[in-house]
Amino acid sequence: MDKLSYALGLGIGRQLAQMGAADIDTAEFAAAINDVIKGNDLKMTNREAQAIVQDYFARQEERINAERAESGKAAKAAGEEYLAENARKDGVTVLPSGLQYMVLREGSGRRPKATDTVRCHYEGFLTDGTLFDSSLRRGEPAEFGLQQVIAGWTEGLQLMQEGAKYRFFIPYKLGYGEAGAGRSIPPYSALIFDVELIKVV
Question: Is residue 133 flagged as an active site residue?
Answer without folding.
Answer: yes
